[in-house]
Every structure is written in C-alpha cells, then in structure tokens.
Specification:
The complex is a heterodimer of chains A (109) and B (321). Chain A has 109 residues and is mainly alpha-helical. Chain A has helices at 2-7, 11-27, 31-44, 49-61, 65-76, 84-87, 96-107. Chain A is built from seven helices and no strands. In chain A, helix 2 runs antiparallel to helix 3 (31-44), helix 3 packs antiparallel against helix 4 and helix 4 runs antiparallel to helix 5 (65-76). Chain B is of the alpha/beta class and 321 residues long. Chain B is built from eight helices and 15 strands. Classes of the chains: A mainly alpha (109), B alpha/beta (321).
Chain lengths: 109, 321
C-alpha cells in the first residue's frame, strides 16, 4: 500500500491505500501509527466517513473519548460526502460519469 | 506507605467523594473513570423487573474483589436514547413501518429525555441529533431526511459501523445512554469489524439492545451458495453470536423477533420499561489494579432466583486515568 501511496495520483486509490495501511497497522496493534494513516486518508478526502469512523474508533479505544465523540459528531452532522471506500467494489464504474461526458463531447458535431 | 495506610486513604477519599456528591447541587455524573465506576443493572424475577432494591441488596465483584456500591434508580436519571435502523436489505415495508413506529417510540420518552436516530445503508447517516422531541415530529424529520438523502443502497449495509458510531457519539455524562438497533442479519460493507465493535462495547457507557429480524436468506441456501463474492469486509456470513456478545457486554441483549416483542414498538417499550426499572451502581474500585480489563460480577443477595443483567466489565486505558 505504501507503493500505491507513493506512485498513484488517483485520490481514490491513495485514500484506500491509507485506509488499508491503517487497518494493517491496527491488526499489528500499532494504534498510534494506524491513527496517523487514517488522518492521512482524511487529508486526501476530507470528511470521508470510513476513515473518520476508524479514527474515531481508535481514539475511543485509546481512552480519548471526548476527541472521538467530537470527531464523529462533527462528521455525521454534515451531509455525507464522497467516500472512496464505498466505490472500491465498483472498480472503474466510478469514472462512468466523466467518461460519458467525455464521449458526448467527442461525438458532438 | 503500607498497604493498610493506602487502603485507609483510598477509603477516606471515596467516602469524601460520595459525601460531596450527595451535598452538591450539580447533577451527578455517570461516566466510568479509573476512580469512579458506573454499572447499569437490570434485575428480573420471572420476567418481571424487580424494584425497590438498595445498595445492601447487591454484591459487586471487580476482578473478583468485593466493592462498596451506592445505588440510584435508573428512572430518576434523564435518558439519551439512540435508535438505529437500516435501509439496505430491508424491504420498503419495514422502512415504512419504522417511519410510523419511530414516532410512537419517541412518545414513550419522558420530557427530559432526548432522542437521536441513525440510519445505515452503505454508510451511517444521522437523521437527527440528540434532542427532546415529540413523537409526532419524528415522522416529519424522517420524511424530510429521506427526501434529501442521496445515499445509494445497492443492498449494502454497514451495521457494525452504525453500532460503533452509536456507541461512540457524544452524550452528557449526567445522563444514561440507551442504544436500540433493528437488524435484519447482514453486514456487507462496514469498514469496522465485529472485533472492533467488541472493543468499543467494552469501553462504552451505553447499553445496547438489538432486535434481530428474520434473515432474508435461509441458512440452508447460504450453506449451498457460500459467501457472497461482493462482500468487501470478509464478513460473508452474519454472525449473530457476535452481535449477541457485543450487546451483552454492554449490559443489554440481542433478541430474535418475537422474543422481546413482535413489533419494533413493542420491543422498544419492553426495553425501555426494563431499563427504567433498573439501577445504577456506582463505586470507587479498591484493591484492584487500575489499568486494563475489569470483569464485573453483580448478584442480588436477597433470597430467591433473580436474573441480573449488567455490563460484563470495563476497560481502563492509561490515558483515561
């Protein structure tokens, strides 16, 4: 995932790579580094609920309850934003709208 | 300082704290810290709540060590309730039913109680935040929310994420927290996991009750088909046992349809009635190590057979001391 983070210019891939990095670090019990990975994901896609929830959960289980609740409360208080975690299974379908637009512009007389 | 001297200092400190709390005009807080533990307890006998118990009727062991407790009746403390419902695999009929039932559930709350509603499909959405709300306004809130929601569903549900959020979201320390979730048996896209949910459950002050609806795919069919390939989180088969364990860890429970009420309203009514007739036990841990997992065992000392439900323990992290 660090290879993907370093080489990809696709925010969706970089975001998901950071999330997977965090999940792997979590599994290894390296919670502080995992939280840093989730924060990196949120810098790529601010407000993404998947990374915010994972960060909030880590803060909570680390005993930082107020910080955790504040982060989650703030995240849920605004309308749901773009979240690459949910687009992962759709593959290139996430490019459908822009590709369609490009096609229309190409064939337009 | 000898062990005895330390114990005396701790006891004096604990008695002073209890005395000060009794004298103070500020509302008591009900949040577990390393130096003050709060446990919600429900006591039933023959499926009926047992009322009128006091501190001397309970024994509480913290990691096997008896503790001195004070009690408060749960009904005296304002409640923050969170309802959690799903839109993924649910039939539209169930969602419509929730719209109707949520108002009736809200009308069961007291004037000082507050309600929050969370919806989960592929992601968790807050329909409305904690607020005192009249029953008839809840349906309007839900209608307004559904009209503006842009959530895709695609059959995906993030129940574990929704429960983690419900158990973490902010409340006030002077209130009790109750989370009631309605669950049809599948989680397909949560970014969290049952293990993470369990870790949160071990640390939360909230009590979680879950009504498990009948699964949409019979077990025998799932056994033949195996895991659905589109599941992202590896949780191909819903593990109701995990949900039951999580709920019981908080002092709540998970029940199949009909076990604690056939409808959502009946289920919520029974949960709320039992909850209000419960007790809050508070104590300052003594003679136990502060950090780490503390297993709690609560019993009623009065003669007779009682069903006592309380959270299974609590976790003290180094940072929370």
């Amino acid at each position: 995932v660090r290879f993907a983070i370093a080489l990809s210019s696709d925010p969706c891939i970089v975001f998901v790579a950071h999330v997977y990095e965090g999940l792997a670090l979590d599994t290894l019990g390296r919670s502080t580094e995992a939280m840093a990975a989730y924060e990196s994901a949120l810098r790529v896609v601010p407000g993404a609920r998947s990374a915010a929830l994972l960060l909030a959960e880590n803060l909570f289980t680390a005993g930082r309850h107020e910080q955790s609740a504040a982060l989650l409360g703030k995240t849920l208080s605004v309308p749901a934003s773009h979240d690459p975690w949910l687009e992962l299974s759709a593959g290139d379908y996430r490019f459908w709208a822009s590709n369609l637009q490009q096609l229309r512009e190409t064939v337009r007389p | 300082m000898t062990f005895l001297a330390r114990a005396i200092v701790l006891a004096v400190f604990a008695l002073s704290a209890i005395s000060l709390a009794a004298q103070s005009q500020t509302p008591p807080t009900f949040r577990t810290r390393a130096d003050a533990v709060t446990v919600n307890v429900s006591v039933q006998r023959g499926n009926r709540p047992v009322e009128g118990l006091n501190a001397s009727d309970f024994t509480l062991l913290d990691n096997g060590v008896p503790q001195t407790v004070v009690t408060t009746s749960m009904g005296e403390i304002p409640l923050d309730a969170t309802l959690v419902y799903g839109v993924g695999l649910w039939s539209s009929g169930n969602v419509r039913q929730f719209r109707t039932d949520a108002g009736r559930m809200a009308s069961l709350l007291g004037p000082t109680d507050r309600l929050r509603v969370l919806e989960y499909g592929p992601r968790v959405l807050e329909v409305f935040p904690l607020q005192p709300i009249r029953g008839e306004l809840v349906s309007a809130h839900l209608d307004q929310f559904r009209a503006s929601a842009t959530s895709i569903t695609g059959g995906w549900t993030a129940l574990y994420d929704a429960l983690v959020a419900a158990l973490i979201l902010p409340t006030s320390p002077e209130r009790r927290q109750l989370v009631v979730a309605f669950y049809d048996g599948y989680d397909t896209i949560s970014v969290t996991s049952p293990a993470r949910l369990q870790a949160v459950a071990a640390r939360t002050e909230a009590v979680l009750h879950v009504q498990l609806f009948q699964r949409t795919v019979p077990t025998i069919v799932r056994g033949v088909l195996g895991p659905f390939p589109f599941y992202l989180n590896g949780l191909s088969d819903p593990d109701e046992d995990q949900i039951v364990t999580v709920a019981q860890t908080t002092g709540g429970g998970a029940y199949g349809a009909g076990l604690l009420g056939r409808s959502m309203v009946e289920f919520f009514t029974n949960v709320l009635t039992d909850y209000r007739r419960g007790y809050v036990l508070q104590y300052t841990p003594s003679a136990v190590a502060s950090e780490g997992w503390h297993e709690i065992d609560v019993k009623v000392t009065k003669p007779g057979k009682y069903d006592v439900r309380a959270r299974r323990g609590y976790f003290v992290d180094a940072v929370s001391r």
